[in-house]
Amino acid sequence: MKQAGKRLFELVLFLFILSFISFVFMKAAPGDPVRYMLNIDDVSITDEQVEELRNELGFNEPLYVQYWNWLIRFFQFDLGESYMTKQPVLQELINKVPSTLALTFSSMAVMMLIAAPIGTLAALYKNKWIDHLSRIFALIGASVPSFWLGLLFMQLFSVKLGILPAMGKGTFLHLLLPSLTLGIAMAAVYVRLLRSSLLESLGQDFIKSARARGLSQKRIFFFHAFRHSLTPVITIFGVSLGSLLGGTVIIEVLFAYPGVGKLVVEAIVRRDYPVIQGYILFMGLFVVMINLLVDLSYRYLNPEIRLRGGDKG
Fold first, then answer.
1. Regarding predicted confidence, which is higher, 207 or 304?
2. At residue 312, does pLDDT exceed 50?
3. How much is the pLDDT for 182?
4. How many other C-beta atoms lie within 10 A of the C-beta of residue 172?
5. Of 288, 306, 285, which Cα lies nearest the Cα of 19?
6. Higher pLDDT, 140 or 244
7. In sequence order, what are the beta bridge partners of 88?
8. Residues 6+ apart with CB under 8 A from 166
9. How far is CA 215 from its chain centroid?
């Protein structure tokens, strides 16, 4: 219970610091959303109209007053309204989140389907041809930018072969190219990581003890070595989740996929501050929750951590 309260306090403190820093830097960024809003239909505007809208939006108030007013609304679960669409920011994010989560988890599935078998075989057959191929795959995958890989997939599967849609959202086929683009880019890193972790696990004393007790090689590998090797893999995955979410922004724009990433890019172009602020907080909360789940998974994957936790309790 004490640990849960500590986690909750850290989460609230993190969100507060993140919201304040992002609010200050956002206001300091160049560009005037008021003039963009008034010029959106290419009509002439007067200084009086600009000042009137600035007063209406509260831009003429001191920065700390603007932040305090936003914070009060935030604690009421009100992230404000988009300057451009006049829709509640929270509702816009909720509408876009399922699409981004679908892309994220499908990319993770592609990554695991590639990294797990290749990384495992590379560890089992160290310095064999499959291991050399995994190194080449990792090198190429880590060197190729994801957006360039996406363009290659679009050119091949959409333009030349015409078998997959290049843009938009509709059916499962619309997810294939974006998921492959992100999944292959991630798999290149995790192939080598899983290989190294498995080789390290196979050299541990508890593996030698298991062999001495006469356990089968399959049981030793899958129930002991493989499970132990997942701890550093999941650790790195939790840390790199921010990079994955950043990658979805690029891919969503590239494939015109209507997710949260595409929404925030359009908001940045339009200086739509409420949408930008809401996106930053949403991503911050999402990353914190994923890292919390990673910490909890240690207790299952690594018995030593579970035993130490039990001793402290």
1. 207
2. no
3. 87
4. 9
5. 285
6. 140
7. 81
8. 154, 157, 158, 159, 177, 255
9. 40
Show the tokens assigned to 249: 């922004």
**Residue 226: per-residue pLDDT:** 67
**Count of alpha carbons within 13 angstroms of residue 195, beta-carbon side:** 26
pLDDT over 70 at 45, yes or no: no
By the 8 A CB rule, do 167 and 256 touch? yes
Quote the CA–CA distance of 234 and 305 in Å, as a whole number: 15
SS3 state of residue 214? coil
CA dist., res. 72 & res. 66, Å (int): 10
> Taking a C-beta distance cutoff of 8 angstroms, is the pair 92, 274 a contact?
no
Sketch out the chain's domains with CATH numbers.
2-75 (no CATH), 96-270 (1.10.3720.10)
Q: Is 49 exposed, middle or buried (0-12, 13-18, 19+ CB in 10 A)?
A: middle
Rg (CA), the chain: 24
Q: Does 112 have pLDDT greater than 50?
A: yes
Q: What is the pTM of this model?
A: 0.74
> From CA 87, how far away is CA 68, in angstroms rounded?
22
CA atoms within 13 A on the CB side of 20: 9
Report the candidate in 298, 260, 292 with the shortest Cα–Cα distance to residue 278: 260
How many whole angstroms from its chain centre is CA 74? 23
Please give the structure tokens belonging to residue 313. Answer: 């309790």
> What pLDDT digit, counting tens, does each position of 177-236 carry?
888 888 888 888 888 888 887 777 766 666 667 667 666 666 666 666 666 666 677 777
**Could you please report the per-residue DSSP string of 50-113?**
HHHHHHHHTTTS-HHHHHHHHHHHHHTT---B-TTT-SBHHHHHHHHHHHHHHHHHHHHHHHHH
Q: What is the mean pLDDT of residues 92-114?
A: 86
265 vs 3, which has greater pLDDT?
A: 265
- pLDDT tops 60 at residue 164: yes
**SS3 (DSSP) at 183:** helix
